[in-house]
Design brief:
The chain is of the alpha/beta class. The protein folds into two domains: 172 residues, Phosphoglycerate kinase, N-terminal domain (Rossmann fold, 3-Layer(aba) Sandwich), CATH 3.40.50; 196 residues, Phosphoglycerate kinase, N-terminal domain (Rossmann fold). Helices cover 35% and strands 17% of the residues. It has 14 helices and 17 strands. The strands form four sheets. A six-stranded parallel β-sheet has the order 5-6-4-1-7-8, sandwiched between helices. Strands 11-10-9-15-16-17 form a six-stranded parallel β-sheet, with helices on both faces. Strand 16, helix 12 and strand 17 form a beta-alpha-beta unit. Helix 4 crosses helix 5 and helix 10 packs parallel to helix 11.
Length: 397
Amino acid sequence: MSKRTLAQLAAAHLDGQRVVVRVDLNVPMADGKVSDDTRIRASLPTIQYLHGKGARVVLLSHLGRPAGGPDPKYSLKPLVRDLEKQLGFPVTFLADPTSADAVSQVRHLPRGGVALAENTRFYSGEETNDPELAGRFAALGDLYVNDAFGSAHRAHASTEGIAHRLKPAVAGFLMDKELRFLGEAVDHPKRPFVAILGGAKISGKIDLVEALLAKVDRILIGGAMACTFFRAMGLDTGNSLVEADRVDMAKSLLAKAGDKLVLPSGAVIAQKLESGAGTREVARDQIPPGWAVYDIDSGSVTAFAAIIAGARTVIWNGPMGVFETPPFDHGTLGVARALAAATASGAVTIVGGGDSAAAVVAAGLENQVTHVSTGGGASLEFLEGKPLPGVAALDDA
């Protein structure tokens, strides 16, 4: 279902209007400073466009998981400086976006002015989608733009409730880009269509495997979730992470998938998870007691890269090993390089947020794939075919 977008609104709809924009500024912080501004930069095209059209812009976002109310550690105030640096003009901070004072501040913004509201999760009712809170957020604007794909799978007051109270309610540039890339890949992929799934647990990806089996030509499995499949094949897995209660499900997926499901032929193992640990590469049926799988082996990287090289559409979600602890990053970085090579050969390559996105950035290859999604959980649910509340609430095209 296509949604109305910001680009489809007439300029007269924006000039002098108060526009509430839900952005995703849930950025990593260290010592009160932004340590990775990827999400800030991703939100800039929509903010700059509205600024250029003379709108008065109000930015809503959450940051972290504050428990039971305001917590200075999760305040968005430190981000004002970063936004000002990126935008090149002053940004007003709304200390309490639910107050009458905030409404007045927004009305007095200059044309093209931008205000950043305090963390939406500081207010009771945000995560329960409270209608009264949604109404208070809506009072800040004349129309609503959702550009926070990373939060679109949550029905919160600032993502879903507000879209029913503030019209028009449209998709921003980043949201539109995410929906187009992911939607096109799933609904009209160029073939062969290959999915790469990794991460620790099969339980979080079962729905995705089920949904993709009918659509893809191959699914490559890495990460600790491969160990649950190994156990389902009757192989010894040593001290590896295995979801014992999912082994039967893994068996049925193997039976259903046939040769569509491609598992690693071997693994990098160690007796403990730490940098500098003694490692060995072994075949998947040679994992000894007392050892655990922490990455796919070089043979599997080569085999996966060959399948990726022949693909025309690739979706990747989840690392191949514990990539944040070298040397167990080789498999994930190998897949990232294979994706970049496939992109250079004309394939459409989409990295589905979260750890896979971090891995592509770590490899310095984020500009050598077609699209890096900003939403881990949201992209997963979208690929599974689940409706995203924050998208469903927007106006239809």
